[in-house]
Write a structure and sequence with these properties.
Structural class: alpha/beta
Radius of gyration: 22 Å
Strand content: 15-25%
Distance between the termini: 57 Å
Shape: globular
CATH class of the largest domain: Alpha Beta
Bound molecules: pyridoxal-5'-phosphate
CATH superfamily of the largest domain: Type I PLP-dependent aspartate aminotransferase-like (Major domain)
């Protein structure tokens, strides 16, 4: 038998070395990955201190005070946190208006239906955005509506919905305001208190550039306090999750320790980059560079108005020989993984530009795409 010292462990990920042009999980820095090479106790003071620090930093990024807001971390992917909010904060008498223009908006409809939460849906096409006058009218016609939820950056298409405009309306009508800012928080400034947001939801593996494993909710304390007892599940009970975490930083149930430490590192790197505004500028540059080069290569964007700076849907090229799977494999073999389309009506593929990515990456991928298309043409 081999002694322990002689045993060799072979990493299972050898040979996989390409960047992700997908909006989460996304390409993280080497240092974020390396931060995970430590096993932490969940109850140790060192670890609890990290949780407390992260919660405080999230409040700062959200431009809210600790007196008025609390940051709740929750195990699972982003959808778990959306489901946590929808299933725990609404009282039986509440009625929710769900604005939907993509898969993530529709997922909220599915959740509301599953929990039998009274709701109405305002749905528009995936390349269009919500109109305040329409919402205004819906609210006037249905005074039972007490809450509104929307996705900020609808990752389905890459469209950026008009958060400020709807926030104004929500404040005028004094509705409970829930925002899925999964793929925008950390990559664009969102003054949560100023916009009157009661619950903002995001996750570790998007614009903060951490790895998957937990999501978080920036919750207004007064709203969360009132929600006690409304939860329809045990594990996703937001109020209870916050109550336990607020004691000393220990998570209710096992926490994703490696993910949390990677997140701590990712937050440091966000600060080192110059904070959200600097990151926003980098993403914007990436996005514009990509758009410019893809347009030059003959591609058309699916979203014409309100394209966001995080991810872009491009229509399939007119060439009949175009095969997404082959295209994908070609790009992957050359260092970049892109994303299949998710919009329902039109054949598209998506290219994300968030994560540890720079304009030079956009140039490289666009050059690969150009070469591929030329070869396809001459085939
Ligand atoms: C990523 C994302 C989610 C959550 O998706 P998960 O796969 O559960 O992490 C929700 N909403 C939006 C807009 C997203 O981009």
């Amino acid at each position: 038998m081999k002694s322990i010292a002689e045993k060799t462990y072979v990493a299972t990920n050898q040979g996989i070395n390409y960047k992700l042009l997908t909006p989460g999980p996304l390409t993280t820095s080497q240092t974020v990955k390396e931060a995970m090479l430590v096993d932490h106790c969940t109850w140790d003071e060192d670890y609890k201190r990290i949780t407390r620090k992260i919660r405080q930093q999230l409040l700062e990024l959200a431009e809210v005070s600790a007196a008025d807001y609390t940051a709740v971390l929750l195990q699972g992917s982003g959808s778990f946190a959306v489901e946590s909010v929808l299933s725990s904060v609404l009282a039986p008498a509440d009625k929710l208006l769900i604005c939907a223009n993509g898969a993530y908006g529709k997922r909220m409809v599915k959740m509301a239906t599953r929990y039998q939460i009274p709701h109405v849906v305002y749905e528009v096409a995936e390349n269009e955005t919500f109109e305040a006058p329409v919402i205004q009218k819906m609210l006037q016609q249905d005074p039972a509506i007490t809450a509104l939820t929307m996705v900020h950056s609808e990752t389905t298409s890459g469209i950026l919905n008009p958060l400020e405009e709807i926030a104004t309306l929500v404040q005028t009508h004094q509705l409970l305001f829930i925002v899925d800012a999964m793929s925008s928080f950390g990559g664009i400034e969102i003054p949560v208190a100023k916009l009157g947001i009661d619950y903002l939801i995001s996750s570790a593996n998007k614009c903060i550039q951490g790895v998957p494993g937990f999501a978080f909710v920036i919750a207004r304390r007064s709203a969360l306090a009132k929600s006690a007892g409304n939860a329809r599940t045990v594990s996703l009970d937001l109020h209870e999750q916050e109550r336990v975490m607020a004691i000393d930083g220990k998570w209710r149930f096992t926490s994703p320790t490696h993910t949390v430490i990677a997140f701590e590192q990712a937050l440091q790197e966000l600060a080192a980059e110059g904070g959200i505004s600097a990151r926003q500028q980098r993403y914007q540059k990436n996005n514009e560079r990509l758009y410019h080069l893809m347009t030059a290569a003959g591609f058309e964007r699916y979203v014409k108005k309100n394209q966001g700076p995080f991810i872009t849907s491009f229509k399939y090229p007119a060439n009949e020989k175009f095969d997404f799977q082959q295209f994908y494999q070609y790009l992957k073999a050359n260092g970049y993984a892109i994303y299949p389309g998710k919009v329902s009506a039109v054949d598209c593929f998506r290219i994300g530009n968030i994560g540890e990515l720079y304009p030079s990456d956009m140039e490289q991928v666009a050059a690969l795409i150009k070469t591929y298309m030329e070869e396809l043409q001459n085939d």
